[in-house]
Amino acid sequence: MTQIFHVHSENPQKRLIQQAVNILRDGGVIVYPTDAAYAFGCTVGNKSALERIVQIRQLGSKHNFTIACHNLSELATYARVDNQVFRLLKNNTPGPYTFILAATAEVPRRLMHPKRKTVGLRIPDNKIALALLEALGEPLMTTTLIMPNESEPLVDPEEILELLSRRIELVIDGGWGETSTTTVVDLVDSIPVLVREGKGSLEKVGLEPFR
User: Fold this and answer.
1) pTM of the model
2) C-alpha span between 30 and 136 (Å, rounded)
């Protein structure tokens, strides 16, 4: 049965965060709030949990997954980052961005782009998400909670619970969600290239909006 934890958005209850961590470590799939939309999450090495998320969202083989990290030190374990890129990341994390970077050997192949060997990484500016990542002590595989044939993410935790009941283990209710997604920036060649315009400011990462 799917559980729901009502977690304070400014002062996340440590007891509930630890219970969520235990569910993740036991192989569970969760839904949790971010600084953009609600998202699915599971541990990076959990292949069966990832397959469940793929099935729920009906994702194709070319879908780009993201790894959510607690800080830049953790992010650097999963991506090759030069000094120029590090400065840009430092100035814009935590924040509503997903950065496409060259993956290191620490990234499971199933999470990499099959040809470019890249991975999406982000550090969410959300106290619940950061508390969860800190307590877990490792990143989360994550993807936005957009259901098949829908154009926008789900925002109501109670509706999420009803829709995904018995398909996932936990919904973390951090309040009404947003319909915005992250701004996706490709930094593989150290020069920012806009992939998707979202909540994150383009000017802050040296980009102009699509015309």
Assistant:
1) 0.93
2) 13
